[in-house]
Amino acid sequence: MSFKDLGKVHVIIPKLVRDLESGKMGRRDFLRTSTLLGLSATAAYGVVAKVTGEDLMPRAEAQEPTRGGVLRVSMNVKEITDPAIYDWSEKGNVARHIVESLTQVGTDNITRPFLAESWQASDDLKSWTFNLRQDVKWSNGDDFIADDVIFNFERWLDPNVGSSNYGRFALLRGPNDGDAIIENAVVKVDDHTVQFNLREPMLALPESMGDYPALITHRRFVEEGGNLVENPVGTGPFKLERFGVGQEALFSRREDPYWGGEVYLDGIHYIDHGDDPGAWLAALASGQVDVLYRLFVEQVPAVQNMPNLVLLETPTAQTGVARMKVTEPPFDNPLVRQAVQKCIDHDGVLELAYQNAGVAAEDHHVAPVHPEYAELPKQQQDYDAARELLAEAGYPDGIEITIDCVAQPPWEPNTCQVLAEMMRPAGINLSVNIMPGGTYWDRWTTAPFGFTSWTHRPLGVQVLNLAYRTGVPWNESSYSNAEFDALLDQASGIYDVDARREVVKQLQEILQGDAVIIQPFWRSEFTAMQPNVRGFALHPANEVHINQTWLDIS
Amino acid sequence: MVIFLAKRFAFMLLTMLAVSILVFLLLEVNGESVAVKVLGPYSSDEQRRLWLEDNGYFEPAYVRYFTWLGSMLAGDFGESIRFRVPVAEVLWPRLLNTAILGGMVFLIMVPLSLTLGVLAGMREGSALDRTITVGAVITTSIPEFASSVLLGFIFVFWLGALPGTSGMTEGFDLSQMVLPVMVLVLYGFGYITRMMRASMAEVMQSAYIRTANLKGLPYRRVILKHALRNALIAPFTVIILQINWLLSGVIVVEFFFAYNGFGRLLLEASLNQDIYLIQACAMVAVFVAVGTQTIADIGYTYLNPRIRFT
């Protein structure tokens, strides 16, 4: 296959194509890696079609989309003042109609250009050049330019802002917690070109730019009040009409043409039905909304019994981890953590707590759907070993521990209850402290033992960087391991999936061996919608992308 | 009469004052945690200290209490942590919504239960009496969270006749009121009915009713003119006190049907530890409780001339 028609491409791309041709690399891995390295999604799909003869392009809608209608979505409406400090995908979903990201991770888990139309990485993956779209205008009439991007990155990497992007883009700042952005880390080449210079190689830079807290606000966002609700200046196709926390968010389509092409819906209406999953389903069943943000696994049978609704399912890298704070007794003793780990039958938890809708996990937070996942020997439940470890740790008569856990969604407390039952035979008495969301999420990083749900991320190294690197804000277990950090730096810079897998395998082994987390399973996500909603797919990270969604009114 | 009213109001104020001290102490004594709530978990110690200083947390407790009480009286409840707007901005509209819900419940529940109570109490032990009594006991025994599910299943999922939630996002919609009102009426009417029945039955046994009957007055006239007024005294108190029950009883119903009222607000405020909002909600709830109690006392005295205004 010739590369001339692909234009100037990253040096690795030809090797990837050869791997694809020889069957060494799967088509999904090819799509993911090649688009990450700057190949446009269309070109990447084209290569796959040529090489494998398979058509992977999303099938065209049989019907011509019709314009009009307001899509009503049932979802919690949370406060959205400052995108930099978002900690819920719901916040990102509402804000995304106003402010947008440089890249977008599609419902197929492939990253595509968005506000950035293309990018090139240096061969060592330490320097990335992003070319911004030139036809994008802010709703206040300003042009979208490199200064906007630089303003946001400088803000995210300011340790006083408290943005999760501080960990996400850690390679653009000093290595220690509290360090500021490195000089020349984000450089304006011209009005529509930005160069990123990282202190270590990083593969997932475009992926990270598509994550929900990486929404680009206007360069004068802080100057003009720093409040997205009061001053909703954005590049997105919609404008905010009404907003009330806990109630609703109503958008209408902007009059001026949208840079991303035609948008079919006249508006979007998010309606907050509170925390009762029964109310969400009742709203859908009685036609008060068109789509649910999510459907709990417990309600899937109910929807299956309603033939007038459409059930959507997607396998994800979403999970829940029972993480132990390695700085707090008794979990500062690795023997205690390993004893806890020995009690768990992962398949059993999946079946009891999540109706088998997913796959068992292995306590290292890299999912089988991640390209660099390496299979480790299967863990075995072993009560004798658990008791021995406990005795060695100084608890021959067993131990009393408590896990903090959020009340909703129900699978989380259910999982904790199952864990408690599994630990009991080894003499570990686990009490489950179930608390409301607001209370739990205020202390999720400080509780000695807590059960935290983690959202989907396309690459395994991404979540390892966010949650297990020394000192990053979301490192809820306070895990700190220099060897792990060094390997993680290394893995984050390896383009070749097979080579990366070798390093990630070591990371998996370290994390599993240190028994920082009990991770029972990876779960599938569900939602339901009315049959007349077209062009809507369930996103593995619960993002709502509706720029191509339309309502069949006929 | 004036002395009596003054006494009642003085008592009401005293109760509210006592409760305000409790509310203040319970929720504000730990300034540090308030600062964490307001500034977020990633705020620095320095930021928190500055915030506490700005908000007068280093003043003596009694100074803070009076400052707090003063601003409460002036209608300034502080800013809600969850909603990021002044508490009053969310509190009053939500309270109005609950008043609408409660008002509709009363409009249906009171006439219904009084009528049924009179019908049952008129002829104690009759088939009609037994039917009404058993019915009232059954509906009162089903808690709101159970009847919400049951009625929701019947009318929303099975018959598809009513909307499933009552958020009123497109403006007021009467059909969205049906289920919440139905649930509350079903639960609440039995109690008043049984009070009315007992009271009516007692009056019907009294000598003056027997006399009225014996002197040949039409039965209808005996009931409406002579029995009813006396029989209303006891149920009156119960009815007024139902306002109190409604304010807390609506929490379940508002949560279940996603109705934007006071109950759901209070629940969300508690779940999110929205301190200023909880304080404001608590004070409103206390005001309603003490207020209805006072009205019940005054009304009772007025209805029953045997109690003198002293």
The CATH C-level name of the largest domain in chain A is: Alpha Beta
Q: Residue ranges of chain B: pLDDT <50 for 5 or more in a row?
A: none
Strand content of chain B: under 5%
Task: Give the end-to-end Cα distance of chain B, rounded to a whole number of Å.
Answer: 7 Å
Q: Would you report the number of β strands of chain B?
A: 0
- Gross CATH architecture of the largest domain in chain A: Roll
**How much of the polypeptide of chain A forms β-strand, as a percent range?**
15-25%
The number of domains of chain A is: 4
Strand order in the largest sheet of chain A: 8-9-10-1-11
**Most extensive chain-chain interface:** A-B, 37 and 34 residues
- Tell me the number of helical segments of chain B per DSSP (H or I, 4 or more residues long): 13
Using the CA coordinates, give the radius of gyration of chain A. 23 Å
Quick tags:
heterodimer; A: 554 residues; alpha+beta; Dipeptide-binding Protein, domain 1; D-Maltodextrin-Binding Protein, domain 2; 4 domains; five-stranded mixed β-sheet; five-stranded antiparallel β-sheet; 20 strands; 19% strand; globular; B: 310 residues; mainly alpha; MetI-like fold; 2 domains; 78% helix; flat
Q: Can you walk through the features of this model?
A:
The complex is a heterodimer of chains A (554) and B (310). With 554 residues, chain A is an alpha+beta fold. Chain A folds into four domains: 4-52, no CATH class; 99-209, Dipeptide-binding Protein, Domain 1 (Dipeptide-binding Protein, domain 1, Alpha-Beta Complex), CATH 3.90.76.10; 238-309 and 530-551, Periplasmic binding protein-like II (D-Maltodextrin-Binding Protein, domain 2), CATH 3.40.190; 315-523, Roll (Dipeptide-binding Protein, domain 3), CATH 3.10.105.10. Chain A is built from 17 helices and 20 strands. Chain A has helices at 12-22, 27-36, 41-52, 89-95, 146-156, 165-168, 205-209, 277-285, 300-304, 334-342, 346-354, 383-392, 411-423, 437-443, 460-467, 482-491, 497-514, and strands at 70-74, 103-105, 111-113, 116-121, 127-132, 186-190, 193-197, 238-244, 248-253, 267-271, 291-292, 310-324, 358-360, 399-406, 428-435, 449-454, 517-518, 521-529, 533-534, 550-551. Chain A starts with 11 loop residues before the first helix and ends with a strand. Residues 56-61 of chain A have low confidence and may be disordered. The model of chain B has no long low-confidence stretch (mean pLDDT 85). The termini of chain B are close together. The radius of gyration of chain B is 24 Å and the shape is flat.
